[in-house]
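Human
Can I borrow your eye for a moment on a structure tokenisation matter? Give me a protein, with the fold worked out from its sequence. Write it directly below this note and I will take it from there.

Assistant
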Amino acid sequence: MFKLRFGTLLVFSWLLVLFVQGVGEGVLERPNLSVPVPQPSPTIIVENRPQSPLVISAPRYISNPQGPEIAFNVTNVFTKEIRAFAIKQVVGKGVSSQSSVYLFNLDLSLSELPPNYSKTHYSTFEQPSGREVLISLAVDYVQFSDGTNWGDDSGKSSDTLSG
């Protein structure tokens, strides 16, 4: 009887050693338990200036596998058709902010923006891992179909459009 118990104990001990050392097929394989950490959605602020011929509205965050995007609508609230416009996008605030100017040349799409019409546009941004982001959007420059323009043009969009 003692031999049987000792033999059983020896077999179980040997199996325990094999299990602990990971010998055998998939004995110690652990499932991948990494869970992607969701990024907080950015806060998007629109700065529509008085007298601006173009109004930005309905800003929204789009989670995209290629990278985060924002979408927004622009509406021509002026009496002339718009040929091109630039949107200034500031990500972050203070010293750590990054500013970009996106030029939308409607001539390339063969469609100008008539008075009282809206279009949806998209832009991308860098989102620091795990941090909340503040994004502000403002109209920087507008070029009308008749060649006149409006805005600060901090991104020198008029130079780009003139060639």
User: Anything to note?
Assistant: The two ends are 98 Å apart (CA to CA). DSSP finds two helices and eight strands in the chain. The chain has a mean pLDDT of 81. Residues 89 and 137 are 5 Å apart (CA to CA).
